[in-house]
Amino acid sequence: MTRKISAEMREQAREAFLAYLRDRRIKNTSQRRAVLDAVLDFSDHFETEQVLYLLRERAARVGKATLYRTLPLLVDCGILKQVRFDVKQAYYEYAFEEDPHDHMVCRRCGRITEFASDELLDLGRQIAKRHHFHVISHRLQLSGLCWECSIACPVAMAPLPRIDEPAPKRTQAKHGRSD
Fold it and tell me: 176 lies in a domain?
């Protein structure tokens, strides 16, 4: 989801990060502020190396180690959210005062589609209540093929079950085998 962060939200994020650093007695350095300003300029998911490239483009004197130490601080204070779409790479996205959302990732082309679902949030609350669990956050990622890739991939064109049909019965595994 491409988004533009307003000047007001940028300022609120800066104030939240400053308070976070102050509460933990961590120095508020010009390098950390440069990292924050850089990540607030991304409108979509981004990788650490993209931030480093942007900082170098701006001639900001921020080392790679400082960047790698600052990103977890931004995650911990709620400005960023770390997401993983594959096993190799961590991505980040802006999370400060954002509504919760989840992701669908195409395994063929890598397209990332964000979606929000009130039904999913309600289901999570019901499950948490049933188990006497207090939810702080959730993460859901659906993996499959986007529409374009499913058309291009003949294997993916197998008929999908209709939504109004009951799901096929699942057999219980006994001793590690399915009967």
Answer: no
